[in-house]
Fold these 4 entries.
Entry 1:
Amino acid sequence: MDRRSRREGFTLIELLVVIAIIAVLIALLLPAVQQAREAARRTQCRNNLKQIGLALHNYHDQFSVFPYAVAHTGQAATAINPAPAGQFNSVTNHTGWLMLLPNFEQAALYSQFNFNWATGIRNPNSATLMGGSANTLINAALSTRILPALLCPSDDGPTVYTGADSSYGCGVANSARTSYGFSVSNGNGTTVWRTEDPLNRRLFGLNSAANFRDIRDGASNTVAIVETTLDVDDGETQSWACSSHVGAGINLDAPNSNGVINQFTCCTWRTPAMAQTRFGRLGEWGEPGSAHPGGLQVLMGDGAVRFINQNIDRVTQQRLSRISDGNTVGEF
């Protein structure tokens, strides 16, 4: 018999070895692929923040002032009613994102809002929509528009409020969230920006009206926009269209978590005591954090985007958030 006519192939052992080698290669390659994907998503998030920076600067060029973080919120409407002279209506609860819509190529959406009425948010002390009019309901319906420019692609959290948590949005199901918050000193917006201690003041706040002259520490040393997560364990995250009693913005100094960035654990005060931890979901509302491992991205006052390590020195973190405390920031 001619030996050359025999059909040759892998033995069972050789086949198993080949399969094992392929499995090892896949196991080695998978983390690299995931890292590459996260790098791409982080770059897109960075681009989002850059576009926000351009929108803020264009707005300032037009009006010589930055937009407020939020007009009077639901909770503040009771505490500050009637509104102080020169301040906005105490129930409008509009966000600065609304003011920036024309600079996001959303002029058509902007033109549909009635800014004389609230954006539908429920008053935390009642079950009724603030304003109680058809105009309020129209504004609330517009809040369901999902804006990709205000969403971090690394965050796979819910992009809208649904079901029981719809009152945390704009009082309607499917009102949309955002991954970014204006830098504020008080996330529940009960203190009018102009009455805050100048040494502790952030670039934005309740009825804020800051301009570049107010940033005495320098725009390159001052944070303007802070990343947050689309979902939180306690409270609520940010809505782009309206603010309720805890949706006025993000405090980079993170008072609820003692300054910890990416604090994903909450909440030991529950009864019975129970702490839940989930990467990419912050423990408390109004805190800084992201779905990016190791830290978060911020937009500086000069339009630059910086990545802040979650292990940043607390003093530097505080100085970055304030606009005129007179302290040197240093390297970060």
Note: Residues 20 and 129 are 62 Å apart (CA to CA).
Entry 2:
Amino acid sequence: MEAYAQVLLYAIPGFIGLILIEALYGWIKGEVNFRSMDIIASLSSGLTNTIKRILGLTVVIVSYGWVEERVALMEIEATWLVYVLAFLALDFAGYWNHRLNHSINYFWNVHIVHHSSEEFNLACALRQTISNFFGLGFIFLFPAALLGIPEEVIAVVGPLHFFLQFWYHTTYIPKLGILEYLIITPSQHRVHHAINDIYLDKNLGEIFPWWDRIFGTFQEELEDVPPVYGVKRAVRTWNPIRINFQHLWLLMQDAWRTKNIKDKFLIWFMPTGWRPEDVKGKYPIEVIQDPYTYEKYDTPASMPLRIWSWFQFGLTLFLMLDFLLHFAEIGFPSLFYYGGFFLLLVYSYTSLMDLDRNAWWIDLIKSAYGLGIIYFMDGWFVMDSWIPGGSMAMMAYLILSPVIVAGFTFGEVKSYQKLATEVAHS
């Protein structure tokens, strides 16, 4: 985990740098596909995923190493060719895992956050899941285990394979000629993120497009069908934690509400979007029928609220770097306390971005938790060792934050909620 933390210290600034370059290019070209709140939501989602990954909060039912030890047909050395085979095996596994996520109700919950942005840019690539409770990668990596590809090779190639999926989340790169047959390109991945009927659940490959072509899930981007991005059941929130569990909550509600005992079990394993008949009529859910007339989710946030939201994200990013830089010094179980604060912080400021009337007390809980950390740990983890007065600065922030959020909640949020109520009853 410590080695992974060191890799992220370079990867996170690199990703953010590329996002800024893309935004600058779009602004210069006059084709901006960035919205302030959407970008903050995407970046914040990436940070929550980082916390979950680095703390290892996924139950690995069966590890790849355990399978490889028992089924390998041969023992091979870690040569360059083995690394190539491992990369291909990971991509093959990635295709089928991705296809499973798009095909089955329960597994769609794991993947929905990645598709939840109604924009398509490098930032949306960072919308990664925190709702995958069980690691099932060993199933699709079975061919690699049969070949005897060592566990340490998979461990090295895995992060590289994951990071290489970042670059093609952009609208600014056109079709790439012969490369369209060799690698996944931005054009192919635009299709994958689109909710147009012809594009839905297509181009599931991660690095190579061969699997889509072989298994019948390939669709070329059409000039006369511009992609529209998002999910068919729009998430209508900036809060990445809510997005991660929104579909799961719907499944739980439907399983509880249906009178059909069989459907209570089947709903989890049926195709994505399936609902019991007796629930579907009684509890309808809006599904986007015409992507071209659908109005994107937005909140009428004032400039002060936008500035405050960016400040909150900036603080979260700074604390993330503190977390990664001093990973070993902080140690367990304090790392879990730190991780809990991250989740509360992100939930708090993205709730305010949604103009949620509960934003103030959520922020109050976050600040109380943070002040508790400072009190019981005699400071903000190890921050004072590299920033003199760091704990005092954190304390000042935690005291002032609920005051500022209260101002927004009882002013801007209250006005918005009143207007929304009036519109709903008109």
Note: The mean pLDDT is 92.
Entry 3:
Amino acid sequence: MSSPELFPRAGFRRRFGSWIYDFLVAVAIYMVTTMIVSAIFNTLFAFELIGANTEQTASDYFATSILFKVILNCAGLLAIIYFFIFFWAKSGQTIGMKAWRLRVQNQDGSLMSKKTGIKRLLPTLLGLGNLLVIFDRKNKLSLQDRLTNTEVVVLTLEANRPK
């Protein structure tokens, strides 16, 4: 087995560009998830499986339902979490990372596991963990990189092409 290629670690600007792309994708994922959950709840309401004892319209019922809001937000958040963990474990690249030729990997160059992906999400702090890269110009490691022994590297054009 050959050793993995060595790529330079990514700086803040490239990470930030990727973050913007992935933020837009995450918003889209959240919106689609919201649409699906809302359609399910509207169907349940229409068949009177929920809200049967109320004179409210569906929109009024859902506007006041704490359970609906909790389920809606949790489903959206879980879909976004799944998006990041799936792509990080599968190829090391989200859509935004692919566009900016970035890959997240273990420091030995191997792809990280789903478990590492979960651990990486918490200290990411919605991308704020990357601010540490500004102050760590030598190592270019973010908070989440340090805590999970991972790194974000810049790929060559050739290495970024699909196989």
Note: Residues 13 and 93 are 17 Å apart (CA to CA).
Entry 4:
Amino acid sequence: MGVPAEADNPALAYAYCVVLLAEVDERPAGVVVGRVGGGPAEVKRFWTDPVMRRRGVGGALIDAGLELAGRRTRLSVWRWRDAAIRLYESRGSTRVPSWDGRDGLVRMARDDDTVPLR
């Protein structure tokens, strides 16, 4: 396996991306980075402070990111991230064939058939 594209060329990997930050009591609680132009919409990064988990922060971030994308959205998640997979599935994402060659990833898409995944 070679160098991931994000490490090799972050400017290209994160072109057309938007960063949404969640705050609780004026402190960072989570972040979602999504590509909303220049190709298929994609959740590139998603993280919630462990202290804030199970309080709706992650769901609110994903909902905001999906609303911003407004179309077919793809993502990949490590297969052991069960809570994240359940969250994505609860928002309409399903498992799809790979566009990423890394082992251990589950590839998912919210599919409204308007934008190709590849």
Note: The chain has a mean pLDDT of 83.
